[in-house]
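step 3/5: co-fold with protoporphyrin IX containing FE
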Amino acid sequence: MKSLPNTIQQDLRKRVTLEPDSLEMVGDLRPSFNGGTGGPKTTTGWTVWSILTGSASAQGTDTWQGGLMDLDNAKCIADTCCVWRHVALEMEKMFRGQSGRCTAEARASVRLGFHDAGTWSKFTEDYGGADGSILLSGLAGNEDELKRGENNGLQNVAKVVIGWYNKYHRYGVGMADLIQMASNVAAVVCPLGPRTRSFVGRVDSSRPALNNLLPNVLSEAAVLIDLFENKTIRVHGLTALVGAHTTSQQHFVDPSRAGDPQDSTPGIWDVEFYAETAGNSSPARVFKFPSDVKLAHDPFSAAEWNQFASQQAHWNEDYAKEYVRLSLLGVNNINDLTECTKVLPPRIDKASVSDDNAVVKQWLSRGGSKKTSDNIESGNKVSKLD
Ligand code: HEM
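step 4/5: write tokens
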């Protein structure tokens, strides 16, 4: 793809504000919502407001206490989070690989969460965002968002999530919440990942989201920064969110290199991605996205990028904060949501991952076949190269 003419790039630059962190409210927390009557009004509203303004942590330590009641038990039905504990446990099983690394379904769930919520902009009509339409549009027979080119690679996880929806919907589980819960469970199941505060009660929609609101891997940094600013996510937030590529193994940017990872530790939520994308000493198999390389070196994002490269805790908190924001784009009933962070699994560190470094290292130098890439992608321990 050709670069944008300089005049357009400069024009976009002028629109990038000097404030790199967003304090902007979303949904019904916006003061202008509903004729100027918006703002935090409930405990949940104030909690989200505090997270978005940085006065409360976006990571939760609250854990599930006691046993788990059956889904049909009246007490379980009366407790909004009870069914979500069942859901989270089922997700955890699918997302944790035998090696301790997270699985392909986990990574795809993080991306699915972004691709549902990210289809919102403050300059378009107020619909789209985290409303479940990425899966509900096709199920309802409308134009199927999942068939858009930008959603290539999400078909397998879509089947899994639709299966969960069919199983748990009669217990009050909505698609928009399910997609965002899957993203948060996935992130914390990947070793070192954050335990992002999780809310439920979003309103579902099967109306296909507007087009052209998701980023292109070949775009200039200025275009990407502008695109995310229109979602209330400023440049530090974008820098934190793209770090999700730390776990990833691409298939469609360069199909001839399908399965190649975006850093040398796929399936692990570490900061290697930032260091390797910015530097030039990553192993041969690491495939860097052009968009990530541009952000790593852009004057507006490079400083934060380089900080993340050596600051896991800083990155985790910033990722969680921006993910809370992202997961609430287009959600106009934030005051009515319920926090269910306690259903998430605990955070885990790298020590829990199988010691197969020597084989993974050979794979990273382009040893092994597709079978080895598939094994790593599934979160399996690789005791030899196939
Ligand atoms: C500049 C913005 C972004 C661009 C251009 C971008 C682009 C891409 C592309 C092209 C892929 C590879 C798909 C494939 O070939 O299989 C990918 C994968 C992925 N993206 Fe992004 N992305 C961006 C931001 C984000 C954000 C904000 C998140 C999450 C918060 C995210 C999470 C992921 C994950 C987890 C994968 C791996 C999926 C898998 O392994 O199945 N991305 N992204």
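step 5/5: annotate
The first strand starts at residue 199 and ends at 200.
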